[in-house]
Amino acid sequence: MIKKKEENLIERPPVVVVMGHIDHGKSTLLDFIRKTNIVESEAGSITQHISAYEVVYEKRRITFIDTPGHAAFCNVRSTGACIADIAILIVSAEDGVKPQTIEAYKSIKEAEIPFIVAINKIDKPNANVERVKQELMENEIFLEGLGGDVPFNAISAKTGEGVPELLETIFLASEMEELKGGENNLASGFVLESKIDTQKGTEIVAIIKNGTLKKGNFILIDGKVSPIRRLEDFSGNLINEATFSSPIKLIGINGVPEAGTFFKTFTSKKEAEMAANSLEKEDIIPDKTIINRSSSNDDDTKISIIVKADVFGSIDAIQQEIEKIEQERASIQIISAGVGDINENDIKTTGSKENTLIVGFNVKVSQHIKDLAERQGIKIVVVDVIYKLTEWLEENIKDLVPKIKVEEKIGLAKIIRVFSKTKTNQIIGGKVKEGKLVLSADVKILRRDFEIGRGVIVGMQSQKIQTKEVNEGDEFGMDLKSKIDITPGDVLEAYKIVEK
User: pTM for this one?
Assistant: First the structure.
């Protein structure tokens, strides 16, 4: 039986993931290949989701996975690398190797897939291909002809120079990998992203890695069985079937599976349910970690966050950004994270807790929900660029932590003479040893490094001239309001009260 299946295997198109640092031209390259203009529609001109596209070059198909380049989307990029057959590591000929370039390279190595380096932006005035090659070598990425076996192409995603050669390199790498698939098999593959559409229900973008998926089949995904009623290609056109390497969209599937979830199809519901029952629950349902950065200090302000996003990949990115936020005397916890618009259930989830924030990424929130949140003292923000979300969180978390008053030293002075005393005031002379003394400043009175009392500067002279400030190294005369008897040799420590 196995031998028969092997005989039916035929060559299948490669699934290629494009990876690299932000603004090095990943989406622009795909734009040129697809003759579209996706970049201008991206929020902040940054790709923030995985997207998959199918192109035909000289009658041969290639599926491209476009991944975000910003550091926040590390998990998303890793998912793309694991699903793909071949990777393109794109590096700007202007900027060279950057942190996300190395991070993307590590994801590729972990996925153990072949990759091609595309040195982009060779049309730019400051392009330096040889410098980029040297930087790649310094990071142990050894290109062909330079002591290694990694193929590379110098390209301009803007003008198209070198792009045909890059596509030929992809096909050559595909042939060397001997990618095969069975058209007559039932489809299996992986989820790229998923979201909830208020009108259509769950939308899943997936890649078929083997077999043919047909409308009317049943799909087992994330432990749930669903009939395939509506099937779309990557352009949103309704189709009845799709075969291996194709990116597809499944509408109305039960649940909202995470990126990277494996799926399998069956001809009947009974077969799918039997397969579901035979699987261990922990093998098919991923564990969604909720961040809990609780501090051992019980006095810290407890801040609860609810995260809502359009797709699971964005939730992973937001969680990573929240993990980076550092705020003294604050304990930050994500109490809920999910896909879909902000709704009344999210407000209920807060349990009317103080210091609760709800953050939404590429989702909607009605005026009714805004009013409900405001009545309960809950702040909501919805953004379409992750940087804005991070900035909003940092600012509001800081505002939620109560300010504390601390004493900040501004100067030290040694007392040399005491001229006169009354019950409340003393006329003294001395010299500033450190910092400065200012009129109306509070002071600590120190004797042999121990505080014996406090006072306030109500008058000062320097060189017999009234002054508001005496600097380090200068002598002074002072009218100090204090009931403590001061003696020569005592030290005054001037300070101010600041809120932190």
Answer: 0.59
